[in-house]
Known about the structure:
43% of the residues lie in helices and 16% in strands. The protein folds into three domains: 32-131, Helix Hairpins (Orthogonal Bundle), CATH 1.10.287.70; 145-270, Rossmann fold (3-Layer(aba) Sandwich), CATH 3.40.50; 295-358, Alpha-Beta Plaits. A seven-stranded mixed sheet has the order 1-6-5-4-7-8-9, with helices on both faces. Strands 10-13-11-12 form a four-stranded antiparallel sheet, covered by helices on one side. The protein has a two-stranded antiparallel ribbon with strand order 2-3. The chain is an alpha/beta fold. It starts with 18 loop residues before the first helix and ends in a 24-residue tail after the last helix. The protein contains twelve helices and 13 strands. α9 links the parallel β8 and β9 (263-266). The radius of gyration is 32 Å and the shape is elongated. α2 runs antiparallel to α4, α3 packs across α4 and α10 packs antiparallel against α11. It holds the Pfam family TrkA_N. It is a multi-pass membrane protein. Residues 358-383 are annotated as: Disordered. One of its GO terms (cellular component) is plasma membrane. This is Voltage-gated potassium channel.
Amino acid sequence: xxLPNLAAFPTVPPQRGDADDQSHGVHLPRSVGGPLLQVAxxxxxxxxxxxxxxxxxxxxxxxxxxxxxGEPVGxxxxxxxxxxxxxxxxxxxxxxxTDKARLLTTFLITPLRILFLIILVGTTLExxxxxxREQWRLAHWRKILRDHTVIVGFGTKGRSAxxxxxxxxxxxxxxxxxxxxxxxxxxxxxxxxxxxxGDATRSDVLVRARADRARQIVISTQRDDTAVLVALTARQxxxxxxxxxxxxxxxxxxxxxxxxxxxxxxxxxAVGRLLGLSMIxxxxxxxxxxxxxxxxxxxxxxxxxxxxxxxxxPREVEDLVVSVIxxxxxxxxxxxxxxxxxxxxxxxxxxxxxxxxxSHPPAVDPEAGTPRRGPGSWRIPRR
Length: 383
């Protein structure tokens, strides 16, 4: 599909609404069980309170009197007395008449009645306070969120991008998913990601994801024209954010770059080249597949030059150097200008991941030099 010229797309200025508008459609992950599990837990607590009260009354049944039949109080009478006493004030047909029974009713049965009512009313109170607590969680999340990664489109490509980023040490709390499907965002929430439901071509949707304060945006939409509009909108919100986009057709790459994308990946061509390479040389295809799969085997990564490596040749570095980044230039490892490494250079290397690195991702962000938490380490607690 060939896209029209960029001038054909209207530009919409960013719109910033109030806090309620910016929180609409935002869904945060929760580390709690489902509603049925919560109801079952409350019912078990209520039954436990009733059982404790029945045991207390039954063991002191001689201190109670049945005013209707005059017969001794049995187990069923104890259960009946506890049921009407915990849920109401009682009917007066079974009453305590000894001092011990009255003390037990005062100091044990009455507190259990209060606890029983609290458990039953707790569900109603939770429903009434849920909106307030959710608004507080969203406000707190929006306040602390910055320098994060926004992934637009959480299909196969988006999920793979998120997993790759987390395998390099990016905390899961620093990833926000944007997708027009509520089901997709719900699945992302279940996996621990914060999500925004909406059309990412609209500036207000990206503002909800705090794209204006993001460090990088990954565009992995299903359509190339959608990717162009998302890139345009994201670039309007932030001139410094790094935008990486995926397109299906190679002829749309220049249009994506013109719309503001820093890097464009042609998914169909990349898969086709990998298929052809695997046909010609299955071993070469296996190596490329190993490089693509982050976290195990061979890994392609970018890192700074260490002090020990400064002044040396790329061939003398422990890792296999593929390219040298000097300023804004990307130099092959055998380029004459890259014959001696400088301390300000960055290297693109092929690195074999050791066993300890597979289970323990980098603890320090190589860009910012700040400690990182491992993937999946974050949940916004429910209080």
